[in-house]
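@channel anyone free to eyeball this complex?
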Amino acid sequence: MLKVSNLVTEFASIKALNDISFQAKPGRITTVIGANGAGKSTLLRTISGLERPTSGSITWFDEELTDKSVEAIVRSGVAQVPEGHAVISQLSVAENIELGGLFRKRQARGDLEIATKDVYELFPILFERRREPAGSLSGGERQMLAISRALVARPKLLLLDEPSLGLAPLISAQIISIVDELCKSTGLTVLLVEQNANTALAVADHGILLALGKVVADLPAKELIADSALRAAYLGY
Amino acid sequence: MNSFLTAFFAGTSQGAIYALVSLGLVLVWRGAGVVNFAQMGQAMFTTYIASQLIQNEYSYWSAFVIALISGALLGALVDLGIMRPLSSRKNSLLLNSQSMRTTIPVIASLGILGVLKALAGIFWAGEERGFPAPVPTTGLRLGNTDLAITGFDLFVIGVVFLTLVLTTIFFTRTGMGLAMRASALNPEVTRLSGIRVGSVRTLSWAISGTASSLAGLLVTPKTNLSPNTLDLLLIVGFTAAVVGGLTSLAGSVLGGFILGYVIAFVNVYSAPENVFLAILIFLLLALFLRPQGILGSKEVRRV
Amino acid sequence: MSKVKSHKVIGFRSTRLAIIFFLFILLLSMQFGPYNQFQLANISTLLIAVLSITLLTGASGQISLGQGAIMAVGGYSAALLVTRLEISMWLAFVLAIFISALFGLFLGLAAARLSGPYLAGTTLVMALAIPSIAIRFDSFFSGDIGFSVDYGYPPDWLTNLLGEISIEEWSLYVALPFAALSLFAVLNLSNTRSGRTWRAVRDNEVAASLAGINIARTKVIVFVCSSALAGLAGAIYGFRGLVAPSVYPTDLSLLLLTAAVIGGLRSIGGAIFGTFVIVFLPDVIEKITKFLELPETISIYLPALMIGLLLLITVILNPRGSAGALEHIRHRHKH
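replying in thread with the prediction:
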């Protein structure tokens, strides 16, 4: 279980995250929603170690993640798919995927091959285009590649930062449903950050609403979808 | 015709050495965002180590190998001892300024250069000394005609060619090579893939140190060895790297050979004292006509 | 209203500082023998060159490793004017400033497109290439031999005023007024609107251009001002006796950069301190090595070693230089 307690992250003494506490259940999708600037991305970046928290703690089951380096956090089974379909466009599709599993190459070569086969089965289009540079992919394919890069590391916790950003609704729905299936079939825990709440909450077990760096609602996803007053107040729709 | 061949062969073997220097500069620039002006100072130092070993009756080849290893170690040491502490001082006021972030490592590398030159002077005195070649440096003959190339030239070309092939294999076929390319292109995604970007960066410094150390071993049989001998090589290597676009490994090698030919032809058809001027003009032409490098595509960054 | 007032205050402050510097060096020279008087003249001359780096790097963040080459431009201009056209040295110095500024304009137009390491490398190549021009066109620039030029004799009114003036004193009297004037000019420049513009470009080019600052033009202006100073320094430096390629080696460029860095790239007081260090440190080290009876191989290279180490230590421990360290201490005492 992911447990975030009293987390504070500051940029030049402005609190981007102000005393955030919540838990994410294992094997489920927890969706974090909030307007632009609410601190959603900062939350993910703090969990993955890209930003250092000022205070508070982050634990994954018994493991303390708070002061670990990004690399060490990835190696404890936490993978982040950063905002903006982050792939390395000059490298080929296959190289991007290989990169994600590179740190396991020595210990688990066999499993790495299986993991690579798995992501190609999940996204067959990537297999077809595996020799092409990642920069030539469409937005949706790039997002698939970014997720694949994270998945070959066989993470237990996947942090997804606005996967539907800039994608057509149909494609983003498809990606989210693939993530949902993955959760159900492999027991992966997902922390999903989205601005576009409906699709993201539909597959989630739990929903967290952030505003100005604080948790304003922490409810079962269904209740959050139903609470139109709350959403109108914080998201404007 | 004969002078053309002379220039061509000299250009090829000198260009091979320039290619190594330029490759070393580009490796560190891509991997760590630093143009290392101390690079040939490091090479000078390791060549002195080899020279010392040979004087102590070690064989050429063991001295050769030890010099390459010390080149790698010295490169790693520069990163771990100086560049890494520098880049971790993010809260320093001066480093908050955009332009200072690239300027400060340049200044640090000049400090390293000064220290290495002074140390070499203290340890090995300042006067020039010769450095042996493993094969004869006399011109080859085919039947009755003198060829404009020496056995050593062929050796240089062979060694550099082998090095370039190995480097290419390393970068395109191994996981470590992939990690190095990835962390040069996008450190954040690479870190999120669980790769220790800091160690990869140190490795770039080490490989660059080895390449330039090799360049030092290959050039000194012709130029002799003194604390200042390799300064010119740095200038030429930098120009070659800029001609190649400063970020492309293949471009840097190509740039090295181009500079080799330019300098050789200026030497043969003009006069040696025009070489510096030719380099400056060539550098300025490269900067203004093709700032993205000969192999670069149009959209690339500003210089 | 308040703006005008602040300008006046700044003008007053820089005048005062320049005069203090002038009197300080003068008083110091009276305590010294001929050798150290000559060193003070060197300090005054090199200070102008170091200020040209403080202006360029400290105020705009651009790094030039070719300041020595620009000094050569100034030195050769003045030497050619004096030997070929036989004009007075003082006029030649002033003309050298303009010629170097013009050179700086061309350099700046080229350099405005370059940043960081590109500029550093290009100016380093320039530092090597410019002196070789003198050898390439040796009938005009008289090659390796160069031009023998000197400060001449002090005018009668000065000897009448001060009595007998030694060569060393005279070289100080030539260099010091220029140093004080340069100090005054740089102090004023960095406190005016253009100084603030330069710093904005240094700290964040994108933000500066969004604020309506013309980045390219700003960079060119900085280069022109910096080159004018370096050219003046080069002229005075050359007239100590010889203007030749060997007087303006690459090492000179690096030494000047070192002085600017160890003093603190952003501080004019630091530039003065750094210049003192590079001029007097070799002497101090020589005394120590003589005292310790170190072998010659060490004593020759020790100054270079110390200067390299100083550069590294400054950059690693406190990139703002000794001026920054002082500020830090003062700051702590206040709280």
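from a first look: Residues 1-77+157-237 of chain A form a domain with the Rossmann fold fold (CATH 3.40.50.300).
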